[in-house]
Structure formats: C-alpha cells, structure tokens
C-alpha cells in the first residue's frame, strides 16, 4: 500500500506529462517532471534512463500518428505529400514542443525507421545520397514551421491598412481567400517544393 | 533623484528585456517584464500601451536586420532568395521567440511595410492576388522552421544505425555532406520553392 503514486508510474504517464509540460513551457526538466508526477526524481530512473530518453519517447509518441506508409506504394512526391499533411497535423497538436524536438537529436528507433524509409524513397526516386539529407531537413523545416502556423489557429495574421499597404491589403482581402488560409498556404508551399524537386530530377 | 530605475526606462530597454525573457522561456508577461526591469507594471504603461505593443516592437526590432530591399531592383525570385537568407539569420538569433512571433498578429508598421513590398513584388511578377497571401505564409513558415534548425547549431541531428537504417545512414554519411548541413538544406528547400513558383508562372 505504500507510495501508490509511484506504483502507478509508467512510461506512458511520464511521456504524457513531459509533453504537457513542454507544450505549456517549451521545455521540461527531470525535476519538474517528477514534481508534476508527484514522485521523487529517482523513481523516474526506474522507467527511463534520463531526460534524453524522455525526449526520444515524446518524438516517438507524436510520430505514432504520422502516416509514412506511402513510400514504395505511390510515386515519391505523392508519398511526400501524404507524409507532409499527417506530419504537420501531428506536430500542430504540440506546438510548444516543436522547438525542443526540432533541435534535439533524433534517436528513437521508430522515428529513425520512418526517416530511413523516407531516405530510401528519395534515393529510389533518383536523388543522390548527398542530395537526400538536405531534402529531408528542408522538408522537416517547412512542415514544422507550418505546424506552428496551423497551431496559431491558421487565421490570417497580417493587418494591413489599405492606404499605407495597398499590395498586402489586396493580397489579404482577395475575395477568393479562404477564411483560414493555413491549408492553402501549406498546399502552395508543398506543391512548390515538390515541383522544384521533380524539376531537379527531370533536368539531369 | 527618486526612482532612478524608472527614469532610465525607455522603449529600447523594454524590448531588449522582452526579447531576453521570450528567448529564454518562449513567452513573457507584463508582470515578468516589469519585475526583470525592476519597475512597477504601471511604469511600463508610460512607454507602451501593453503586451501587444511590446510584441509588435519585438518583431520590428528583429526585422531591422532583415534585408528586403531587393524587390524591384532584381528579379522577384532573386529578391525572395536574399530576403530569405537575412530573414532566417535574424530569427535564428531569437529561437525562443519564434513561436510567439509566428502566432501573433503582424501589426507593427515596419513589418507591414516590408510585407507590402513583398506582396507587391509577387504580384508584379505575375502572381494573382489570391495567390500572393499563401505564398507569403508558406515562405514565412519555411524560413521560420529553418531558423529553428539553424539555431540548433545546424548539425546533423539524425543518428541512424548502419545495419537497421541503411538508407538514412547512406544519406547522413555521404562523404560530400558538409559538417553543418543547415545551409545546404536551406538552399535546397529555397531553390525548390522558387523553382516550383517559377514553374507556376511559366505554365500559364
């Protein structure tokens, strides 16, 4: 009957709480995590090796909802398109954790398997090995920046004055614009990137 | 002689401190800001109208180092390229503030003038008004995601195992890769986006 809260501790609860803290504050420490879980920090070390492993588990958790299954079944650019949409949605649910995960080493085996599949898909499509890593990084950066935009509610954030900023006003006020431009912007950027990459392959 | 610290308060100091707090914690409150500046919150209101104006001033401050002067002097895609590099560098110095600024309204007159110049440059290049806003948002998202990557030190973050992740290992281990892939990745993504946008214009 002793220490029931410790007895209930498991990896899932630790990851839940680490994501909650990071979403709220942008980061977490083992001390904060233990405190929020109502346990002594040493109890955490029965379940995880330390902060780095918790970060790995956070990435793996978010990655669970990312669909990367299309590589090898549809053309590479269609596979990247499907990956991009589910990747953005997954991270848009954790905007406070984006900076932490975007700047930490990728070490968890689930994410590494997915990146391996992505790298293989790009190489199979015709990109040379030295071209693959920059494409993956650029794609990650576009998707994570877009996830921040999506998490902001995706509303237009520009507030031009028609007299002083006529061009921006015309752009923001175009009657064809959707109320929430985040998806159209994502589609526009994604299509541009994929078209540019295809052009690179086609012009060898 | 009374309250010397209040007497020394000015807008520049307020913005410096707001950036410092946001870079460290991802956000700031007027209470925190006043506390760090050693003044009562009411003193801040002699200089700024409130938190929103401080956010505007933070954006304007970062924007001071962004070079957007090329629109109208060189082809639109070359102007976007120059804008992108200086925009990424400016925000990479403030990674903790990226989320805050990426999700807040753009209201400061300096930034609005620059976005107006950007919008005008795109429309002059041939993009329709409804196309301009999504291009600007997608470009912002790519640049801000890339600024996070640059701020992480720009080192390769993927740690594949050659046996388990052969494709990712080949990509990461390509002898041609630079030690710091962030700039090559940025150039790759930027070129793809600009090529894709040019393709859109050329195929009308």
From the 3D structure, determine the CATH topology of the largest domain in chain A: Tetracycline Repressor, domain 2
**Low-confidence runs of at least 5 consecutive residues of chain A:** none
Helix content bin of chain A: 55-70%
Q: Secondary-structure element sequence of chain A?
A: HHHHHHHHHHH
Q: Which CATH C-level class of the largest domain in chain A is it?
A: Mainly Alpha
Query: Architecture of the largest domain in chain A, CATH level 2?
Result: Orthogonal Bundle
Taking the sheet with the most strands of chain A, its summary is: none
Please provide the count of β strands of chain A: 0
Instruction: Output the structural class of chain A.
Output: mainly alpha
Binned strand content of chain A: under 5%
Number of alpha- plus pi-helical segments of chain A:
11
Largest protein interface, residues of each chain: A-B, 83 and 83 residues
| Domain unit count of chain A | 2
Estimated radius of gyration of chain A: 21 Å
CATH superfamily of the largest domain in chain A: Tetracycline Repressor, domain 2
Mean pLDDT of chain A: 93
Please identify the oligomeric state: homodimer
Terminal CA distance of chain A reads: 70 Å
General form of chain A: flat
């Amino acid at each position: 009957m002793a220490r029931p809260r410790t007895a209930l501790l498991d990896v899932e609860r630790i990851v839940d709480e680490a994501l909650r803290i990071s979403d709220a504050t942008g980061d977490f420490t083992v001390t904060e995590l233990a405190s929020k879980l109502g346990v002594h920090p040493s109890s955490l070390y029965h379940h995880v090796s330390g902060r780095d492993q918790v970060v790995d588990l956070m990435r793996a958790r978010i990655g669970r909802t990312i669909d990367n299954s299309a590589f090898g079944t549809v053309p590479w650019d269609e596979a990247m398109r499907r990956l991009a949409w589910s990747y953005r949605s997954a991270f848009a649910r954790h905007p406070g954790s984006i900076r932490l995960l975007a700047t930490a080493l990728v070490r968890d085996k689930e994410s590494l398997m997915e990146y391996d599949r992505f790298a293989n898909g790009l190489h199979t499509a015709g990109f040379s090995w030295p071209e693959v890593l920059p494409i993956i990084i650029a794609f990650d950066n576009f998707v994570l920046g877009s996830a921040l935009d999506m998490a902001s509610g995706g509303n237009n954030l520009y507030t031009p004055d028609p007299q002083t900023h006529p061009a921006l006003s015309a752009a923001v006020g175009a009657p064809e614009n959707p109320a929430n431009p985040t998806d159209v912007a994502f589609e526009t950027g994604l299509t541009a990137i994929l078209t540019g990459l295809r052009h690179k392959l086609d012009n060898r």
